[in-house]
């Protein structure tokens, strides 16, 4: 039933779009953004059950609609262009200091969390070990033995 309803919805969208570039003429509207946000993943993603995806691919005007929006607003997704470069002219995966920056971020976060834990009293350090002979505290049992 769910697949049947979804197929019907796709068919109705295809009929409504017709041969237009967008649903309400030559410029996109909020409905176009909403419909594209549902159709593009359905068209591009690898799905375990491709029945609905196959139906969408059979509706050529909806496929063209998605391709048109992808090339217009996301040109690097189609392979023609690359995403914008970082300010230093390198993409993020090519940044030679990426690993160092990640490690420093983790260390700073860890130090901040430990500092908070110590200052708030969540974690405390108690020293154990031997104290000088004259300064050891007397326990209750030792006190009873002395009396």
From TrEMBL:
GO cellular component assignments: SAM complex
GO biological process, one term: mitochondrion organization
InterPro entries per the UniProt record, alphabetical: Glutathione-S-Trfase_C_sf (IPR036282), Metaxin_GST (IPR033468), Mito_Protein_Transport_Metaxin (IPR050931)
Keywords: Membrane, Transmembrane, Transmembrane helix
Pfam family, one: GST_C_6
Transmembrane segments: 103-125
Leader sequence segment: none
Domain of life: Eukaryota
Domain Metaxin glutathione S-transferase residue range list: 6-69
Protein name, UniProt field: MTX1 protein
Record gene name: Mtx1
């Amino acid at each position: 039933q769910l697949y049947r309803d979804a197929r019907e919805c796709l068919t109705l969208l295809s009929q409504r779009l017709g041969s237009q570039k967008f649903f309400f003429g030559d410029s996109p509207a909020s409905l176009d953004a909403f419909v594209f946000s549902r159709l593009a993943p359905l068209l591009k993603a690898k799905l375990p059950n491709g029945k609905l995806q196959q139906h969408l691919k059979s509706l050529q005007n909806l496929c063209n609609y998605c391709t048109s929006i992808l090339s217009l607003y996301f040109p690097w997704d189609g392979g023609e262009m690359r995403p914008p470069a970082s300010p230093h002219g390198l993409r993020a995966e090519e940044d030679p200091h990426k690993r160092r920056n990640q490690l420093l971020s983790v260390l700073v976060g860890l130090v901040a969390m430990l500092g908070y834990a110590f200052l708030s009293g969540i974690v405390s350090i108690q020293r154990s070990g031997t104290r000088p002979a004259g300064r050891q505290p007397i326990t209750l049992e030792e006190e009873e033995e002395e009396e």
